[in-house]
Automatic annotation (TrEMBL):
Record has Transmembrane as a keyword: yes
Membrane topology: Multi-pass membrane protein
PROSITE patterns for the chain: ABC_TM1
Any Pfam family the entry gives: BPD_transp_1
Organism phylogeny: Bacteria, Bacillati, Actinomycetota, Actinomycetes, Propionibacteriales
Protein's UniProt name: Sugar ABC transporter permease
Family according to the record: Belongs to the binding-protein-dependent transport system permease family.
InterPro entries, A to Z: ABC_transporter_permease, MetI-like, MetI-like_sf
Entry's localization field: Cell membrane
Domain ABC transmembrane type-1: 71-283
């Protein structure tokens, strides 16, 4: 068989070999998404047949003060996780890169990433509970805040949980930034040092512009992770007190599996999916457009 005939045969058979993968994607992704979309327009308790309700679930979602609060908390998570873990990871990467003991200095920041979100919630719940580890340390040194209920009121409880996730996520961000630093050619940096650039000026004008691609990745991952925040919040506060620390992901879980309102839960899930997809696309379009302008 000639090479051209073999290529034509391979082209005809390619869709056949792709069918198993397409079937897996359809079963695990597309069909559940379409089913969730349908359920979001119905009244459904998981037992009886779904009853068409039109836009009732979406109207209820946008008129429910608790869900509006969950949306605001989710936005607070986005701002917090795009700011704190990214900034701390960048700082750790820059300060330890090229250092003789850089790997060991980054290790304490990287280890928490190996811990699950549930474990992070348990650890920090112990630290922040009334008269917990933090309160005992403050009390021992006679500092204010020893008996503060760090998780007892919003939005302070959300801010403290963002600190907990920062503790977990900063290390992997630092590792990604180190990868970005390693990809920077050494000659331009050496030339910049010979020209007198050092410290913050070296970072600002020579390192930071070349870290842009990896920064786009880190921030993009942080945005998606923040919009899906669930496990840490559920373990530490279960969205409370009341609904003061609920996120959209937690509201979706409660509506679906606690209140058995599958229609409302599906509406929140679909809204969260659309927001996550839109935020990712808009962010990437902005970054790519900005890169073209600079190029």
């Amino acid at each position: 068989m000639s090479k051209r005939a073999a290529d034509r045969t391979g082209a005809r058979l390619a869709p056949v070999f792709g069918l198993p993968a397409a079937a897996v994607v359809a079963v695990l992704l597309y069909i559940p998404f379409l089913w969730t979309t349908y359920i979001s327009f119905t009244n459904y308790d998981g037992l009886a047949s779904p009853v068409w309700a039109g836009l009732a679930n979406y109207k209820a979602m946008f008129s429910d003060p608790d869900l509006i609060g969950a949306l605001l908390n989710t936005l607070l998570w986005v701002v917090g996780l795009v700011t704190l873990p990214v900034a701390l990871g960048l700082l750790v990467a820059v300060l330890t890169y090229g250092h003789k003991w850089g790997t060991w200095l980054r290790l304490p920041f990287l280890l928490p990433y190996a811990i699950s979100g549930v474990a992070v919630g348990v650890i920090w719940g112990f630290v922040l509970q009334p008269d917990g580890a933090l309160g005992q340390v403050l009390g021992f040194f006679g500092l204010p805040g020893a008996h503060t209920g760090w998780l007892q009121a919003g939005p302070g409880n959300t801010l403290m949980m963002i600190v907990a996730v920062t503790w977990q996520a900063a290390g992997v961000n630092a590792l990604l930034f180190v990868v970005g630093l390693q990809s920077i050619p050494g000659e331009p940096l050496e030339a910049a040092r010979l020209d007198g650039a050092e410290g913050f000026s070296l970072f600002r004008y020579h390192l930071w512009p070349q870290l842009r691609p990896i920064t786009t990745v880190v921030i993009g991952l942080s945005i998606v992770a923040s919009l899906k925040t669930f496990d840490v919040v559920w373990v530490m506060t279960q969205g409370g007190p009341g609904t003061s620390s609920e996120t959209l992901a937690l509201s979706m879980y409660k509506e679906t599996f606690v209140l058995n309102d599958y229609g409302q839960g599906a509406a929140i899930a679909l809204f969260l999916s659309v927001v996550t997809f839109a935020a990712s696309i808009l962010y990437l379009r902005y970054q790519l457009g900005d890169s073209r302008e600079q190029g």
